[in-house]
């Protein structure tokens, strides 16, 4: 665990947007750093049915001791437990019901505790951040359909995390897109689809951003948390000069997956008409300042949560953001172009 002094230093470094010259902004918030280092809770058991180690891939024989994580159900040799991929993302209670070929919603795959982001999204995005930010045309080069389906099924088995380090990075990217496309309802829910479309098409920038913030705040928590996690990642991709994937290109790739259509039984002709709106909405989402999305992974006593903010933490928020119930809703007075998003942090806040 981090001590208070270390935590303060890390906060000061990570909660300051980097001066990259981009309109999107890029930084890695402490909340995501803690999320990505969430530890496994291992317990030792005797093998009854043959299992494979999630780290080395070798078979664990009958009668031998195996380390099992209570939350994500990862299995490994006792000597391999320190190498099992982090973070530990608890298995959803409903994920097993989705293994029978039924299409689930994002809440069916997300853990019941905040942040509600499915394990597949967390681990695949982390792998792309690690190895894919210097790949030209990332997310545009397709992977093997068969391999993508197999990798998705391994995640949905709810038995730990497949070893992604040796897989082709385009296969990992394809799995993210395939998982989002296979959801019964996109991250932007059908009931809020028109709200997002109206917000994106509003000609007044301030009104457009206000309506977009309001629509985001009304999303179910699993949809909102996953959207925030994914958008922060897409912003990092857009700012990588090696990828050559600006916001417009990413919006074309992810628009149909993130925004989707206005209804589940949408006709083909109507879907074609909605493509432009999907791209416009996705561009607007990616262009929202990264510190707004980072607020959904705020730090409260060293833990990641979506509970209401304390008075001390409120002073760290952008002027345009306020708390309403358990969501972040911007005030009507919006940030100007030159206004600072975060005040300087001091140890008095902790």
The CA-CA distance between the termini, in Å, is 16 Å
Number of H- or I-type helical stretches: 13
- Please identify the structural class as seen in this structure: mainly alpha
Q: Secondary-structure element sequence? A: HHEEEEEHHHHHHHHHHEEHEE
Annotation, overall tally of beta strands? 9
User: What's the shape?
Assistant: elongated
CATH homologous superfamily of the largest domain - what is it? Answer: Rho GTPase activation protein
| Domain unit count | 2
Helix content: 40-55%
Mean pLDDT: 76
Proportion in β-strands:
5-15%
CATH architecture call of the largest domain: Orthogonal Bundle
Top-tier CATH class of the largest domain: Mainly Alpha
Low-confidence stretches: 1-27, 300-350
* Strand arrangement across the biggest beta sheet: 1-4-5
Query: Whole-number radius of gyration?
Result: 21 Å
Q: What is the CATH topology descriptor of the largest domain?
A: Phosphatidylinositol 3-kinase, Chain A
Largest sheet: 3 strands, antiparallel
Care to describe what's here?
The chain is mainly α. It folds into two domains: 35-88, Wheat Germ Agglutinin (Isolectin 2), domain 1 (2-Layer Sandwich); 89-296, Rho GTPase activation protein (Phosphatidylinositol 3-kinase, Chain A, Orthogonal Bundle), CATH 1.10.555.10. It is 40% helix and 8% strand. The chain has 13 helices and nine strands. It has helices at 4-14, 30-35, 106-109, 119-131, 145-156, 169-181, 193-201, 205-217, 221-238, 247-258, 268-287, 290-294, 311-314; strands spanning 42-46, 51-52, 59-60, 65-69, 75-76, 299-300, 303-304, 321-324, 327-330. Strands 1-4-5 form a three-stranded antiparallel beta sheet, with no helix packed on it. Strands 2-3 form a two-stranded antiparallel sheet. A hairpin with a 5-residue loop joins strand 4 (65-69) and strand 5 (75-76). Helix 4 packs antiparallel against helix 6 (169-181), helix 5 (145-156) packs across helix 6 (169-181) and helix 7 (193-201) crosses helix 11 (268-287). It is elongated and about 65 Å long. The two termini are 16 Å apart.
